[in-house]
Amino acid sequence: MSPGFSKLSKQTRVSNTSNAQMTLSRTSSPSGRTLSDRKTRQFPVGTIQLGGDAPIAVQSMCATRTTDIEATLRQIQLLERAGAGLIRIAIDSRKDVDALREIRKETSANLVIDLQENYKLARDVAPYVQKFRYNPGHLHHHFRETPVAEKVKFLVETAGEYGCAIRIGVNFGSLDPKQKDTQASHLDAAVLSALEHCDMVESFGFQRYVVSLKSSDPANVVEINQRFAALRPEVPIHLGVTEAGLLPDAEVKTRLAFEKLLPQGIGDTLRVSLTLPDEEKDREVFIGRQILEDVANGRFLNVPPHFGSGLNVISCPSCSRVENKQFVRLAEEVKRVTSYAKEHRVTIAVMGCRVNGPGETDDADLGLWCAANHVNLKRKTEVLGSFPYDEVIPILLAELDKIIAAKSGEVKL
Question: What is the pTM of this model?
Answer without folding.
Answer: 0.91
